[in-house]
Design a protein that fits this description.
It is built from 14 helices and 2 strands. It has a two-stranded antiparallel ribbon. A hairpin with a 7-residue loop joins strand 1 and strand 2. The longest helix is centred in the N-terminal third of the chain and has 31 residues. The chain is globular.
Length: 356
């Protein structure tokens, strides 16, 4: 909104700052952070009053989690509000990538909200059936993939190889939808401890803010040998909004959490990262940067597959963060060490930009 106003004023005076994506990214981060911190306390009080007993806690989970009974969920709504408002204020409203990523974020957020609402209203941890949820997710991801892919090529680019990609043609639409849905559910599975998913999402968003900016610049993308995507630089602003909204939420989600983001937040943030990766042609790099999310999802897949075949478990409990809790690690130790892993993986992802 402000970008169009500044353009109408020919970027004169102080409005010249709005011309630069780096300035708007910083401003978006601060705007989302401030909005989140301001609305947080009253929003949490409202959730606590309306939900009563809060998010249902699984009886078969780690016993230490039983103390979290009564903590309200759906805190992801705080993230969505601050993220959306800040993006709308600072984005170039004509950019299709922003709209496709915002559609995924809000669409997945709505699906997660329905799941959270079902859990709270029925006092059950089951929620909406997995099949129905996946169908809705692929519907949203399919629309976003159509919008995004119509603006880019249908190549899947391989990291560490200079400007090399595999042409998928029409199958790229399916691939893009799978990346978006997979990212959403991987982050959702990671969100099991206070702050565990939030900080890795912030780290991944910061990494992709840089990637989006570089991909959107012809000079930098040519120098680094990465695919150039015209207009993708605006996604740095979207990533900054994720960071600001995530930091504000983490203020209230830090142990002991005053609120959980729930599926409302985790599905939305994961889907957003997937949509950004598709728009910037860095889908494989997302698997590196978001390796923690991949590992969490794989631990569940391996556990279920092996248990059905043999009746035995590979991990003491899945997702993998619960396995470490069962080994005797405290919740804070698991969270902080997983944050460290996320930072290392983000640096490895950034290394792919130069090692080509």
């Amino acid at each position: 909104m402000l970008y169009l106003l500044a353009e109408w004023l020919n970027f004169e005076g102080i409005f010249n700052l709005v011309r630069y994506q780096t300035f708007r990214a910083g401003a978006t981060l601060m705007t989302a952070l401030v909005i989140g911190l301001v609305i947080g306390p009253r929003f949490i009080d409202m959730l606590r009053v309306r939900q009563g007993k809060g998010q249902p806690i699984r009886e078969d989970g780690p016993q230490s989690h039983l103390a979290k009974r009564g903590t309200p969920t759906m805190g992801g709504l705080m993230i969505l509000i601050s993220l959306t408002l800040s993006v709308l204020v600072w984005m170039d409203l004509r950019n299709p990538f922003i709209w496709s990523c915002l559609a995924v974020t809000l669409g997945f957020g709505l699906i997660g909200f329905l799941d959270d609402f079902d859990k709270v209203s029925k006092a059950s941890h089951k929620g909406v059936s997995a099949r129905v949820r996946l169908l809705m997710e692929f519907a949203v991801a399919g629309v976003a993939a159509y919008i995004t892919v119509s603006q880019i090529s249908t190549f899947v680019y391989v990291p560490f190889v200079n400007d090399f990609g595999v042409e998928l043609g029409v199958f790229y639409y399916v691939f893009a939808a799978i990346v978006i849905v997979g990212a959403g559910n991987a982050v959702n599975l990671t969100d099991g401890l206070d702050g565990l998913a939030t900080m890795p999402v912030i780290i991944a968003a910061g990494t992709f803010a840089l990637i989006a900016y570089l991909v959107g610049r012809v000079d930098y993308s040519d120098y680094l040998g990465i695919p150039h995507v015209a207009g993708a630089g605006e996604l740095a602003i979207f990533c900054a909004a994720i960071m600001g909204a995530g930091l504000a939420f983490l203020w209230f989600n830090a142990p002991p959490a005053a609120v959980f983001m729930g599926d409302t937040g985790s599905l939305a943030l994961g889907g957003a990262l997937g949509a950004i990766a598709v728009a910037t042609h860095h889908e494989i790099v997302l698997a590196v940067v978001g390796g923690l999310f991949v590992f969490e999802a794989l631990s569940v897949i391996i556990q279920v597959f092996w248990f059905k075949r043999t009746g035995k478990r590979v991990f003491r409990m899945a997702p993998i963060h619960h396995h470490f809790e069962q080994l005797g690690w405290s919740e804070s130790k698991v969270v902080i060490r997983f944050w460290i892993v996320s930072i290392v993986l983000a640096l490895m992802g950034l290394a792919t930009l130069k090692l080509r």
